Amino acid sequence: MKVYFNKALFIFTVFMLSFSAISSNTQDKHDNGEHGEKFNVNEMLMHHISDAHEWHLWGHKAIYLPVILIDNGSVKTFCSSHFYHGETKKVEVDGKHFHYIKGEGPASKYAMFHEKIYKLDEEGELKFHGGHPVNAKPLDFSITRNVAFMFLTVIVLLWIALSTAKSYKNGISAPKGVAKFVEPIILFVRDDIAKDNIGEEKHKKFLPLLLTMFFFIWIANLLGLIPVVGSNFTGNISVTMFLALVTLVVILFSANKNYWKHIFATPGVPLPLLVIMVPIELAGILTKPFALMVRLFANITAGHIIILALISIIFINQNIAWGALSVPMALFISILELLVAFLQAFLFTMLTALFIGMAVEDAHH
To answer: From edge to edge, which strands make up the β-sheet containing 110-113?
Structure first.
C-alpha cells in the first residue's frame, strides 16, 4: 500500500509542478498584455498544442532552435532567438489589431506571425489583408519543436532497438536489460497483430514496418505527455498524414491480383452495378489511410486540449478555489492519456496490418 501511495504522490507532485509552470507562463502573458485584457483560452490552447521555433521549458526559459530558410535560391540560417527577442510590432487593419515579431540581426529582413515566417516588404513592414499576411514566404526547413521531438523519439527508438538486438547477439536464451521489457511487446505485435491480420506465411515481410510504427507512435505519445516540455507532434496532422501515406504506399505496392480483381471486377456483382461499385472501391483505398490519419491526430490532440481546458477554468473564473475541481479532473485525464498513448499506437498498427492483410490475401475457392 505504501508503494502505491508513493507512486500516486509522485504523479500528483509532477502534475502540480506542471500546473505551476503553465500557470506562471499564462500569468506572464496576461501581465504583459493590455490592462484589463481578459484571459484568452483559445490563444493559450493553440500556443501549447501548435508547433513553434522554440522549445519552451518554463517561465521565460526556452531552448531556441535553428531557423533554416531558402530565399531566392540562397540558404539563410540563424537562431530563432533573433525572432523571439526581436521587436513586436502592432498593426491595425479594418479595426482589428495584429501583432507580429520583426527579426533582428540576421533575421532583420523577416518577420514571424503565428510561428510562420514572412519576408518584409521594401518598407520593412508586414502587410495584412483579410486578417492574413500578404507578404511572400521563404521555404522554411527549420528545426521546430515538433521536429526536435521527432529526432528525440528516433534516438530513443534506436536505443531500444540496438540494446535489444545486442542482448540476442551472442545467442543468450534469457533476455537482459531493455530486452526484458521489449520482448513481450515484440511478441505481442508479431502474434496478435501481424499474424492475426496478415497471416502465418506472409507476416514476416511486414513485421519490421509494423514494429517500427508501433514503437515510434507509442514513444512519441509518451514523450508528448512529459509535463511542460512535452511536444504534441503526433497531434500534428502532417506527421499523421505521412504515417498514413506510408501505409497507403505499402498497400498499393504489396497488393496482389486478387485485391485489384475485387476492386475492378468484384465477383458476384452484376456488370451494370460495377459502374457504381468501382468508384466506391477506389475511394475506399484512400479512405482507409485517411481514417488512420484523422484518428491518431484527433485523439492525441483532444487529450491535450481537455487537460489544458480544465486548467483554464481557474483563470477564466479568476479564483484558485476552482483548482479543487479542475486539478483532480485534469490529473485523472493525464493518467488516462497513458492508456490512450498505448491504445492509439496499437490501433494504428493493427489497422495497418489489417489493410495490408486485405491487400495480400489469396483468393478463396
So the answer is: 87-93, 96-102, 110-113, 116-119
> Same domain, yes or no, for 193 and 216?
yes
The verdict on residue 261 lying in a domain is: yes
Cell, residue 236:
500534428
DSSP summary character for residue 135: S
Task: Classify residue 175: in a domain, yes or no.
Answer: yes
The closest of 92, 96, 103 to 67, measured between CA atoms, is 103
pLDDT confidence band for 37 (50 / 70 / 90): low
347 shares a domain with 263? yes
- The answer to whether residue 209 scores a pLDDT higher than 60 is yes
Does one domain contain both 248 and 112?
A: no
Instruction: Confirm whether 59 is domain-assigned.
Output: no
Tell me the per-residue pLDDT of 40-82, one tens digit each, with 9 for 90 and over.
767 777 767 788 888 877 777 888 899 999 988 889 999 998 9
* pLDDT tens-place string over residues 285-331: 899 999 999 999 999 888 888 888 888 887 777 777 777 888 888 88
- Number of domains making up the chain: 2
DSSP category for residue 231: -
**What does pTM read for this prediction?**
0.82
CA distance 352 to 346: 10
CB atoms within 10 A of CB 88: 10
Q: Is residue 40 part of a domain?
A: no
d(CA 63, CA 324): 33
Assess whether 171 and 304 both reside in one domain.
yes
Identify each DSSP E strand in the chain by its residue range. Answer: 54-58, 61-64, 66-71, 74-79, 87-93, 96-102, 110-113, 116-119, 128-129, 132-133, 139-140
Range of the domain at 309: 146-360
The grid cell for 308 is 489544458
Last residue of a domain, one of 126, 142, 158: 142
Q: Dig out the grid coordinates for 198 from the structure.
A: 496478415
